[in-house]
Each structure stands twice: as structure tokens, then as C-alpha cells.
Design brief:
Layout (H helix, E strand, L loop, with lengths): L8 H22 L7 H15 L13 E3 L6 E5 L2 H6 L7 E8 L2 E8 L2 E7 L5 E3 L2 H5 L16 E9 L2 H10 L7 H9 L13 E8 L11 H10 L8 E4 L3 H15 L6 E8 L2 H7 L5 E8 L5 E13 L5 E11 L4 E6 L3 H7 L6 E7 L3 E7 L22 E5 L2 E5 L6 H12 L11 H10 L5 H17 L1 H11 L3 H14 L4 H7 L7 H11 L9 H11 L6 H12 L1 H12 L10 H5 L7 E5 L7 H10 L3 E2 L9 E4 L5 H9 L3 E3 H8 L1
Parallel strand pairs: 2-11, 19-20, 19-21, 21-22
Antiparallel strand pairs: 1-6, 3-9, 3-10, 4-5, 4-7, 7-8, 10-11, 12-13, 12-15, 13-14, 15-16, 17-18
Helix pairs in contact: 1-2, 2-22, 11-12, 13-14, 13-15, 13-20, 16-17, 18-19
This protein binds a DNA duplex (20 and 20 nucleotides) through α6, β14, β16, α12 and α19.
Length: 669
DNA sequence: ACTACTGTGGATCGTGAATC
DNA sequence: GATTCACGATCCACAGTAGT
């Protein structure tokens, strides 16, 4: 399936020209002689994004396009005993399927009218990343599947895997040694340069198949669906279908699969038990983090011994101290373990560790290193938790709850703590500030006067101003204080960008105790916050809390009230507003933009001559339209190209407006 | 019981700054 | 000018704690 989407020459030229303009503007801006108004810059950047999908060749970060999953792609809950594993079966209906859980990368493939269309990773379960180009390089993944009696649009989920023997071959060839197949697959599939991918022999083992809106066209039994994937050219389905009447049969199947997993060329890290009936499965549905219609048995057999060298004390953004065991490195289950968390004082004391002691470790769920015991106990030598935070020397505060002692560093100016906070604020989930990772956060915490989020934006504004007024002197000063002048300059640019992030992200960035992105989303929606609401945000929040809202109980409520009542936090929001922070409204955004194609949800059928489907979609979406993949009630426009498929018929039936390629030309002109 | 949040592990890759 | 290496981002995973 080696077939890369190639841009036509015209698009290529346009892209190059836009990139040049962006680069020139960036350079001029930071050299203190801006050549372009901000809104014009934004417009060019957006046009570029719509053409190439991202602008990473301009900026620094490697970004894949985000894709929202049609159906959430959640994890499977693990069980560690056979009893717990069996326990769920009774809810699963008459038949259950028992199958190996492959240790790879979860992925969803989309097929339209039998042809591979796109692929996305699991991501956080709701938003994945578009890895279509990478999957096209994998020749073992069918490009065309048989389409007899199946829906126009078919989605197949499975595990991207690689054979251990192929990993060994690769390691035997090259100097570079790879530790295990899962991480190699993860790394390979993220490569931007596609040339290496096909040689890595990555393939997909399906574990689910569905069709949005037309699921009833597929078999009612999961087992039959998986057999269908075999016919389509995917690997043989290894699952066993069991009648629930006989619990021994389930255990037999479990042991059969466990035995198969041992030493298999494709690594499996457990056994999945799932409802065979799709309708039963839909009844059981989803929890927030896990599916309710399947569970996984994970054998915990990886265990080893090593020596404890020392204990380090780390700090989180909230000031919480976490002890970490530093271990004599030991290989265990395809990884070399040198650190393991000790969680808190209570956990640490219960183990009774001391310098030089022999400890038993395992990888919980075959992943997370965990110390399970000390071999040669000696209570006289047990390590005592420090009373001050070693890094800043401040006396620790202890919180005792339910017999668990938790230590906090109360020092507001603790540099390590500030570094953690900056990293959190800059993370992908919060303000998504490029160039603000671990190292930069530490550098800022130690070398600048930043304490809170407003200081960070003041810092950015100050440098931007200095660079405009006296670039030479400013760069000299930056050079003296920071390891990379360019990195700081890029950071300043990223900070500018972060000022208009969505409100939910900004609420999380304010670091109100117990409020993260999720609650932030609810709060932003209920208050229908706009760009100018930052200056008075604490009062608006207080009003909301006093009215009461779902998801906020007494504890969160009082924490929020305390935060609001602190004049420092009112000042914080006011200053942020003053520094130009204008969060984007979640609810109003699509209306306020007033774009040409707002409200249009379209589907394309057939081949278009003006560009690939992806390119056309990107251009239309940039004007406010939404691309759908199949004709449903949500669709209000069908764009018809050469050789239209069954979508045309369906759209006619539903009375959906139908246009040709001319319409697209006109709109984009 | 379920959910949100925080913190922890190892491994990979692309990018670009630092270094030779 | 070429090469090395640190950093940033992302993949996979689980545990503990507290709130609803």
C-alpha cells in the first residue's frame, strides 16, 4: 500500500511561498522590525495549516493532526486474579469471547467503499492522532478489503504490532539496539520521514469492528465480525468463543490463550474476555475510563531482585513530596529498571527500606516498576523521611489522612515546585506552550523571577518589548542567563499564542485547587465566558459556586471560595488580562467567527479533479465547514465528483442538497 | 462505585543547538 | 560542515488519594 498523497505543483508553490512569508515575518518580529500586522500573520498561518495540516516545518514541535474519535477508544480494565476475571462473565450475555491482548499500539482504520481512507491512534481515548500516511507504508495492512454486504464506511480497531523475530533481525543488523516491539512500533509509527516504516513489518491485529449509523449491517456476534476481518486480509483471529453455561470452559480458554502467549512471536500482555453479542455490549456501554463489556486478565509473573542505592525526593506542582527509590539497574521484561516510586512516607516505612538493602521488584501490569518487598529486613537501618525539602531547605508540612502521611513543601518560592508548575501550565493538556518542557521550566524557575502564571506572561511581554526596542542588548542579556537564546525567543512567541487558548484550558492554568481541564470545561460552558472575562473571572466563578453546580460538592466548593476570596488571585486574573490574555470562548466561537461556510456539514463522494479529498476538505474546513465521512441526518451537503459511490443514492433518498465540483471551485475562489 | 487528578515508570522519534 | 546529543513530545502503562 505504498502510495503517498502528492500535492500538485501549484499547491506546492503556494505552500512554499506561505512558509517563506511566515519565516520572514517571524524573523522581522523578533529582530524588532515587524513587517506584518498580527491578523495578517494569523491569516497566513491558518492558510498554511489548511494546506499542509500543520506548520511544524515553521515552528519547532512535531505535531500530528488531532482527530476526534467517533466512538471513544477507551482502555480495558485489568484483573489480576482468575476469580475477578471470571466474575464479570455473567453480565456478558450468552456467549463470551476469550482472546489474547496484544502488546502494541491501539489504532483505528477507516475504510470507505472498501478502500483504506485514514488511520488514527488512541490518544487520550477521545482525541487521537492522524497516522494515515504512516499506515499507508505498512504493506501488510490491507489497502482494499472485500465489500460484500458491508457498510460503505467501516471502522476496524486493532493493535499495531511487530514480530519479536523481526525486532531481533533488526538488532542483529544495526548498531542501534531496540528494547521491545511495543516501543519500537510506537516510535516507528510516529516517524515523519516515511522511508523507514515499510521495512519494520508492522501489521494490525483487529479486536473490534463497527460502522457508525450502519452497525446493523454487520454480524451481531463479535466472533463473526473478527472472522470477517480474516476474510478481509487481516491475520487469523485467535479468539475462542465460549458458551457461558460452562464456567470451566472459560477458564480452559483462559489457560489455552495464556499458554499460547508464552513465547509467542507476537508479544501479548494478557487475555481479554468480552461480550460476544454486540447488542449486549451496547447495553453495557462505557464508563469514563473503561469499557464495561470487556476485561483483561494480566498475569503478574515478572519479578526480580536488585539493590537499593538511595532515595530521592521529588516534588510535584502542588508541593507534594514523592520519594523515589534509586535502584541498581536490572533488566526486567524488556526494560532496564533503575527507579521506582515509593509514593509516600507511610508506603516507604511499611516496606522498611534502607541503603544497600535487597528489594523485590515487579512491573505492575508489566509496565510500572514497583517494589513489593525487602528481602533482608533490618528495622534499625530503615531510612527516615526528611523533615526539610532537600532542594530548598524548607521545613515540610505533614498531612495525615486515613493513616497515610503526605509531605508538602510550603515554600511559595521553591524553585523545583515552580518548575513543576510551569511545566504543567505549558503542557499539551493545559496551555500547550511550545518550548516549555522540563528543562526550560527549570531554567525559568531558577533564573527568572517567575512565581505564578501571570509572571510567566509578564516575562514574555517584557522580552518581546525589549527585543523590539533593543534587540542586540536583549539577546546579549538572554545569552548570559539562559542556555539557548533561540529557545527563549521561541518561547516568547509561543506565549503570545497561548493567550487565546480556550477558556477550559485557561481555567485549569489558574491552578485553582481541585480544578482541572474537565471541570474547567463545565465551568466555561455554564458561565459562557468570553475573551474579556479574565479581568473579573473570580467574581463570576464565585457567583456560580453560590448558585451551586453539578460536580462541585462541599470540598471543591470551599476550596474554590477560598481561592476566590484570596485577593492575590483576583490580582492574578487582573494582571493576566492586563498582559493581553484573551481566552477563546468555547460556545460562541463558531458564531463569532462568522465564516463563509459556518454550519455546513458535508460529505464528498467520487473523485475530485481539483485536489485530493484531504486537500479539499482542509480548504473547506478552514472556511468553517465540517467534513463528515458518511451520509447521515447530520449531513446537509453532498459534493459529487467523478464516479460517485452509494452515498449519492443515499443523499438523494434523504433529500440532502447535492452539488458538483463547480460549487467547490466557486467557494474557494 | 465511579470519577478526577496527580504522580510515576521506560522507550521511541524529530529537531535543532552545541560541539568537534 | 558534519556529527553528537539534549530536549520536547508522544506512545504505552498503573497506583494512590480524594471527591461526588
Amino acid at each position: 500500500m505504498v502510495e503517498r498523497g502528492n500535492m500538485d505543483q501549484q499547491t506546492k508553490n503556494l505552500t512554499e511561498s506561505l512558509k517563506k512569508q511566515i519565516k520572514a515575518a517571524q524573523r522581522a518580529y523578533y529582530d524588532g522590525n515587524p513587517i506584518m500586522a498580527d491578523d495578517k500573520y494569523d491569516a497566513i498561518e491558518q492558510q498554511l495549516v489548511s494546506l499542509v495540516g500543520d506548520t511544524d516545518s515553521v515552528g519547532t514541535s512535531v505535531m500530528f493532526a488531532k482527530v476526534e474519535h467517533k466512538v471513544p477508544m477507551l482502555s480495558i480494565e485489568n484483573e489480576y486474579s482468575e476469580e475477578d476475571f471470571l466474575h464479570h462473565a455473567s453480565e456478558y450475555g450468552e456467549f463470551v469471547d476469550v482472546e489474547p491482548k496484544r502488546d502494541g499500539i491501539s489504532c483505528e482504520l477507516v475504510y470507505e467503499n472498501g478502500f483504506f481512507q485514514s488511520a488514527e491512534t488512541r490518544g487520550d481515548g477521545h482525541f487521537g492522532e492522524d497516522i494515515t500516511a504512516q499506515i499507508k507504508e505498512c504493506s501488510a495492512i490491507p489497502y482494499k478489503i472485500s465489500t460484500k454486504n458491508i457498510p460503505d464506511e467501516l471502522r476496524i480497531r486493532g493493535e499495531l504490532v511487530m514480530r519479536n523475530s523481526d525486532l531481533e533481525k533488526l538488532n542483529a543488523q544495526g548498531e542501534k539496539q531496540f528494547a521491545n516491539t511495543r516501543n519500537l512500533v510506537a516510535g516507528t509509527i510516529k516517524q515523519k520521514n516515511l522511508s523507514n516504516i515499510s521495512s519494520r513489518n508492522i501489521f494490525l491485529i483487529p479486536w473490534d469492528m463497527y460502522a457508525v449509523g450502519e452497525d446493523n449491517l454487520l454480524p451481531e456476534s463479535n466472533f463473526d465480525r473478527m472472522k470477517l476481518t480474516e476474510e478481509m486480509g487481516f491475520p487469523r483471529y485467535e479468539g475462542i468463543k465460549v458458551h457461558l453455561k460452562n464456567p470451566n470452559a472459560i477458564l480452559d480458554a483462559l489457560h489455552t490463550i495464556l499458554a499460547q502467549n508464552e513465547g509467542n512471536d507476537i508479544t501479548s500482555d494478557g487475555v481479554v474476555l468480552k461480550a460476544d453479542s454486540i447488542s449486549r455490549r451496547n447495553e453495557l456501554g462505557f464508563a469514563t475510563k473503561y469499557t464495561r463489556f470487556q476485561h483483561c486478565f494480566k498475569p503478574q509473573h515478572l519479578e526480580s531482585e536488585t539493590t537499593l542505592i538511595d532515595v530521592e525526593y521529588g516534588i510535584g506542582r502542588t508541593g507534594k513530596i514523592t520519594p523515589v527509590a534509586i535502584l541498581e539497574p536490572v533488566a526486567l521484561g524488556g526494560a532496564v529498571i533503575s527507579r521506582a516510586t515509593l509514593c509516600n512516607e507511610t508506603y516507604m516505612n511499611a516496606l522498611g527500606i534502607y541503603t544497600g538493602c535487597k528489594v523485590q521488584i515487579l512491573r505492575s501490569g508489566n509496565t510500572i516498576p514497583q517494589i513489593v518487598g525487602v528481602v533482608n529486613k533490618d528495622s534499625n537501618r530503615a531510612i527516615k523521611f526528611p523533615t526539610v525539602f532537600p532542594s530548598c531547605g524548607t521545613e515540610l508540612r505533614i498531612e495525615q489522612k486515613d493513616q497515610v502521611a503526605q509531605h508538602f513543601c510550603p515554600n511559595e518560592f521553591c524553585s523545583d515546585k515552580i518548575a513543576q508548575r510551569l511545566e504543567y501550565i505549558g503542557s499539551r493538556k493545559i496551555l500547550e506552550i511550545d518550548n516549555l518542557g522540563v528543562e526550560t521550566a527549570n531554567e525559568l524557575a531558577y533564573n527568572s523571577k517567575i512565581v505564578k502564571v501571570d509572571d510567566l506572561f509578564q516575562f514574555g511581554n517584557q522580552i518581546a518589548y525589549d527585543l523590539k526596542t533593543n534587540p542586540v542588548k536583549t539577546k546579549q542579556e538572554l545569552k548570559e542567563n539562559y542556555r539557548s537564546v533561540k529557545n527563549i525567543i521561541k518561547l516568547v512567541y509561543s506565549l503570545e499564542d497561548a493567550k487565546t487558548r480556550d477558556w477550559d484550558r485557561w481555567i485549569a492554568a489558574l491552578e485553582i485547587p481541585m480544578i482541572g481541564v474537565d471541570l474547567g470545561k463545565d465551568i466555561a460552558k455554564i458561565l459562557s465566558l468570553g475573551p474579556d472575562d479574565m479581568k473579573d473571572f473570580p467574581n463570576k466563578l464565585l457567583d456560580l459556586i453560590q448558585q451551586g453546580m453539578d460536580g462541585i460538592g462541599p470540598e471543591k466548593s470551599s476550596a474554590i471560595v477560598e481561592w476566590v476570596k484570596n485577593p492575590e488571585n483576583k490580582g492574578l486574573c487582573f494582571m493576566l488580562y492586563g498582559y493581553g490574555v484573551r481566552p477563546t470562548s468555547l460556545v460562541k466561537r463558531s458564531n463569532t467567527m462568522g465564516q463563509k461556510l459556518d454550519g455546513i456539514s458535508y460529505v464528498i463522494t467520487g473523485t475530485l479533479s481539483i485536489g485530493t479529498r484531504k486537500e479539499v476538505e482542509a480548504k473547506l474546513n478552514a472556511l468553517g465547514a465540517t467534513a463528515l465521512s458518511s451520509v447521515t441526518n447530520a449531513c446537509n451537503l453532498l459534493i459529487v465528483g467523478e464516479d460517485p459511490g452509494s452515498k449519492l443514492e443515499k443523499a438523494e433518498k434523504k433529500g440532502i442538497k447535492i452539488v458538483g465540483e463547480d460549487w467547490v471551485r466557486e467557494v474557494l475562489a
